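TL;DR need structure tokens for one chain.
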Amino acid sequence: MLACGAGSNENPTTVSGGEGGSSAAVKAPAGPVPAALGQTLTVDSTLFGKGEQVVAYTVANGRGLKAPNSFDKPENGTFYGVDLTVEVKTGMSFACGQDISFVAKDGTVYEPGFTTHKGTFDCADLGKGQRKAGMVVFDVPKDAPTGGRIQVKSLWDDEPYGYWTL
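>> reply
TL;DR here they are.
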């Protein structure tokens, strides 16, 4: 687990999971926290005090996707999907696929788009102990996954808490 401040809002973010299974507390780095696909970023996004709203985000299984039908075609080159799991540890949160963005190597940001792929992430109000999972689909250029990343950002100021490298 990596404890850190995230963005200008200075809310702590931790990383857990992946290989090795060990945890260590370290000094908080400046900026968003990096993670590998499959790891969990746990964000304390409380505005006042600490620990009032703690949400865990896991992004895994990044992959290119075929168009789901002859009408739903990518405009930028290809569909790219990731599996998103959101779990509320403390408080409550509105979970939505728009909590994450695709950032290409050149810094271009792509927001999730509407597609008819099956199993996409539906928005939901979640309370403590509740979770939601589904696929988030991005319409990106064909070469965008190389060197790209998926970031989770703050609802309050759009500062990224952390990101998963592809």
